[in-house]
Amino acid sequence: MSASIRPHALNGLRQAMACLLWASAAFVTASARAGVPLPLLADGTPSLAPMLEEVLPGVVNVVATGRVREQAHPLLDDPFFRHFFNAPRQPRYRETQSIGSGVIVDAQQGYVVTNHHVVESGSEYLVRLGDDREFPATLIGVDPETDLAVVQIEADQLTAIPFPRTDDLRVGDFVVAIGNPFGLRQTVTSGIVSALGRHGLGRGYEDYIQTDASINPGNSGGALVNLRGELVGINTMIYSNSGGSIGIGFAIPASMVRRITDAIIADGRVIRPSLGVVGQDLTAELAQAFDLRPRDGVLVTRILDGSPADRAGLEPGDVIQQLGDVRLRDTQSLRRALGLASAGERLPLIYLRNGQRRTAQVTLVKPQWTQLDGAELHPLLAGTWLSNMTEHHPQAGRAQGIVVEQVDARSLAARSGLAAGDIISQIGRTPIGSLADARAAATPRSRELVLRIQRDGRSAFIVLR
């Protein structure tokens, strides 16, 4: 993607910076009361420069290179065509390169946090520091659900950007975005926090900081800092029809970054805890039946045996309204609350039963995934692996069934159209909601198996014979 730098854009940046400095000067007393050191030059002029001198070395350039197979023309699959035109038999590959930003969060160990989408297509990684030193990097782990990744470099004299001492970010606070947009290294833009807790953007576990500080392609993985020079967020995406900034940018909050980063460093991956409930959204009809408002909780439809919810005494028909500090509106908010928690964490849970408000304490646990070889369910499902839908599934509460985890490309199921990620909601004429239901519905001796599946929000039937 190419970009041109227009004079009016530079003038706008100068005006925005001037407004920021004027606002900083106007609120000297308030800033002092809040404990925010006002950056001043020797002549008393307000400036972000002293803070940026401390922070900029902690923002780096991350380059991921890899190889992807080129899509071949269908005619190249024809042996006669290949022989006649002397077409190559071997598949062709092309090199890819993804360039983004990263933030040093541990100077001693050399850990750098960036976005998953910056490194996902790479097999080799390079980190370029602000002083032009370059180091090969090792990918420690990724978490696609939050779009975070951690790489590690072996280097000395590194500068890490500290996390905030307190989680007191508010709408209206001044923030500064630092990154490498369009390859322009160490670029600084400023703005304010426009909103907190943004979600519903279709990006997994969402709890975004929205800011009007300019964020552009290449800023991904860069730092969003406050006036104290603390890392309040990792820039991750923008809302734009043109590909450039229109003042609506999003950053992953520091609390989530710290939790995910610690998990990746410790285990190489993120294991999210389980409550052990299967629920559904409170539609207008359900809300009327339960004498509640729509989107005022999660209706429990099933409790997993031995789960935290089971031990806390929850039952189908209960409506969970709050987990910890998170008010639950629907199944997605429950999924988000669990995504921000840790296994072993003890949280208060507020729910309704027969209109009565109740409170319980639950200790979240690591999920117990149970995968079933499809052949055990029915011979025609050989080559597939199936599992129960957990509360972490994106369609939890909106679809009922079992999840197709893997499908062997050589299997009958694959040739019949079944794919990984499908949700089997019905076997024959029997709706199913669990592996136990599926066992009861499938007749192993039958020579034909009719499955109703859901894929990308659509429903279809597949026949295996």
For this structure, the CATH topology of the domain at 371-464 is Pdz3 Domain
Quick one: CATH superfamily of the domain at 371-464?
PDZ domain
Alpha-carbon Rg, integer: 26 Å
CATH architecture of the domain at 371-464: Roll
Q: What does the overall shape look like?
A: globular
- Number of DSSP E strands: 25
Q: Assess the beta-strand content as a share of residues.
A: 25-35%
Which structural category do the helix and sheet elements fall into? Answer: alpha+beta
Q: Please give the share of residues in helix.
A: 10-25%
- Span between N and C termini? 49 Å
What's the mean pLDDT score?
81
Pfam families: PDZ_2, PDZ_6, Trypsin_2
Signal peptide: 1-34
Active site: 117 (charge relay system), 147 (charge relay system), 220 (charge relay system)
Domain PDZ: 267-355
Description:
The protein has 12 helices and 25 strands. By secondary structure, the protein is of the alpha+beta class. Among the domains are: 277-363, PDZ domain (Pdz3 Domain, Roll), CATH 2.30.42.10; 371-464, Roll (Pdz3 Domain). The longest helix is centred in the first third of the chain and has 20 residues, at 7-26. The radius of gyration is 26 Å and the shape is globular.
Topology (SSEs and partners):
Elements: H1 7-26, H2 28-34, H3 49-55, E1 59-69, H4 79-84, E2 93-106, E3 111-114, H5 116-119, E4 124-128, E5 134-143, E6 148-152, E7 174-179, E8 187-198, E9 208-211, E10 223-225, E11 231-238, E12 249-253, H6 254-267, E13 277-281, H7 284-289, E14 298-303, H8 308-311, E15 319-323, E16 326-327, H9 331-339, E17 346-353, E18 356-363, E19 371-373, H10 374-377, E20 384-388, E21 402-407, H11 412-415, E22 423-427, E23 430-431, H12 435-441, E24 449-455, E25 458-464
Antiparallel strand pairs: 1-2, 1-4, 2-3, 3-6, 4-5, 5-6, 7-8, 7-10, 8-9, 9-12, 10-11, 11-12, 13-14, 14-15, 15-16, 15-17, 17-18, 19-20, 20-21, 21-22, 22-23, 22-24, 24-25
